[in-house]
TrEMBL record:
Gene3D superfamilies: 6-phosphogluconate dehydrogenase C-terminal like domain (1.10.3660.10), NAD(P)-binding Rossmann-like Domain (3.40.50.720). Its EC number is 1.3.1.12. The keyword Thylakoid does not apply. GO terms for molecular function: NAD+ binding; prephenate dehydrogenase (NAD+) activity; prephenate dehydrogenase (NADP+) activity. InterPro entries: 6-PGluconate_DH-like_C_sf, ACT-like_dom_sf, ACT_dom, NAD(P)-bd_dom_sf, PDH_C, PDH_N, Preph/Arog_dehydrog, Prephen_DH. PROSITE patterns: ACT, PDH_ADH. It comes from the Bacteria. It comes from Streptomyces vinaceus. It is an enzyme of class 1 (oxidoreductase). This is Prephenate dehydrogenase. Keywords: Amino-acid biosynthesis, Aromatic amino acid biosynthesis, NAD, Oxidoreductase, Signal, Tyrosine biosynthesis. Residues 1-258 form the Prephenate/arogenate dehydrogenase domain. Pathway: Amino-acid biosynthesis; L-tyrosine biosynthesis; (4-hydroxyphenyl)pyruvate from prephenate (NAD(+) route): step 1/1. Belongs to the prephenate/arogenate dehydrogenase family.
Length: 341
């Protein structure tokens, strides 16, 4: 879409063919050297893939996009590869699904894309990597590789494990309990659907920092179990202590949550939510979005809640508070049933 020719290659040619078929580029080999090679293989194969490509001189510059940065850099050094033409990078955007069919063209828009140049990095190479980030409309963030790995342990790798652990409780759960799943558990467990093979690779490349964050959570868990046991006690003092313990963890959670940046990496925006009842029929969502467009309102975020056992759902449209009145009026006029939030 930005006028760049993209050549795709994969050790499984069917993957490259599928990606080419949905418009990601061509699976034909380039003639001669390309400007930039982007290595998007599992973390354990990054160093070997780069070493081979750099050895053949396939590109003027090289980046990888693996979710960990320290390990691949050390492996490259151990292989004795000249890294002046390489920058380790990591776009902080992804899906719980892998493979070309999970891709979307706007995945990186407005998302942080970490670049980890060193003193050895050639300036022209850094400029090419920055151009790639700009073409994908992402936001460049320059970091040291090990600082990056500690940061993603906190904001990505540990959350993946915690989500999996919560979802794991459901495996043996009674069907009557599972039927009651609402939006809360859907939010907490979305990434539990991720590919275990990819995550074993990511966690194997960042075990120390993830274990440190998880140990902190384990101590919170222990204190919370004690607090809940206190709440079960006949002793008034123990019940009071238990309630205070629970309140403490919930309040610290509130304080952490407000620090999570909004969609475009800027300060979080308080959107107004407009809830619309829809029937579970093809085209309903498209109709709502078209009506919002007619009112000139940009939908910042959207959530859909399905009612169990009913052919209906609730769509929550998150919009700039200044646009909420216009959207409400337009939707009412067009016959939509709105629900109070
Ligand atoms: N999925 C995400 O959310 C996400 C986000 C940011 C970064 N990443 C990183 O991107 C990289 C790729 O992840 P993905 O989700 O695109 O996985 P994916 O499974 O969709 O793609 C990986 C591809 O690499 C190919 N491959 C494996 N070994 C190879 C080798 N030695 N040579 C050539 N090709 C090889 C596989 O056949 C596969 O097609 C990983 O390093 C991951 O950490 C993933
Ligand atoms: O949101 C998701 O589904 C992701 O998998 C995204 C996510 C993340 O944790 O933010 C996961 C791993 C990648 O390294 C980068 C992004």
């Amino acid at each position: 879409a930005r006028g760049i020719t993209v050549h795709l290659t994969d050790h499984d040619p069917a993957q490259a063919r599928t990606a080419a078929a949905i418009g990601a580029g061509t699976d034909e080999a380039p003639e001669g050297q390309v400007d930039l090679a982007i290595v998007a293989v599992p973390p354990a194969h990054v160093a070997a893939t780069l070493a081979e490509a750099i050895g053949r001189g396939v590109a003027r510059a090289y980046v990888d996009v693996a979710s960990v940065k320290g390990g691949p850099r050390r492996e490259l050094a151990a292989l004795g590869v000249d890294v002046t033409s390489y920058i380790g990078t990591h776009p902080m955007a992804g899906k719980e699904r892998s493979g070309p069919l999970a891709a979307t063209a706007d995945l990186f828009e407005g998302r942080p894309w970490v670049l980890t140049p060193t003193r050895d990095t050639d300036h022209e190479v850094l400029n090419l990597a920055l151009e790639l980030v700009a073409l994908c409309k992402a936001v460049p963030v320059v970091m040291d590789a090990d600082a990056h790995d500690r940061a993603v342990a906190l904001v990505s790798h540990t959350p993946q494990l915690v989500s999996s652990m919560v979802a794991a409780r459901l495996e043996e759960a009674d069907e009557t309990a599972v039927r009651l799943c609402g939006q809360g558990i859907r939010d907490v467990t979305r990434i539990a659907a991720s590919d275990p093979r990819m995550w074993v690779e990511i966690l194997s490349a960042n075990p120390g920092p993830v274990a440190d964050v998880l140990a902190g959570i384990a101590s919170d868990l222990e204190a919370t179990v004690d607090a809940l046991r206190g709440l079960q006690s006949a002793d008034v003092e123990k019940r009071r202590g238990g309630a205070a313990g629970i309140e403490d963890v919930l309040k610290r959670g509130n304080a952490g949550r407000v620090r999570v940046p909004g969609k475009h990496g800027t300060a979080p925006v308080a959107y107004e939510t407009i809830a619309v009842l829809i029937s579970d029929e093809p085209g309903e969502l498209a109709r709502i979005f078209a009506d919002a467009g007619r009112a000139g309102v940009n939908i910042e975020d959207v959530r859909i809640e399905h009612a169990t056992g009913q052919q209906a759902g609730l769509v929550q449209l998150m919009v700039d508070p200044r646009a909420a009145a216009a959207l409400t009026a337009e939707l009412r006029e067009r016959g939509w049933a709105l629900r109070q939030q």
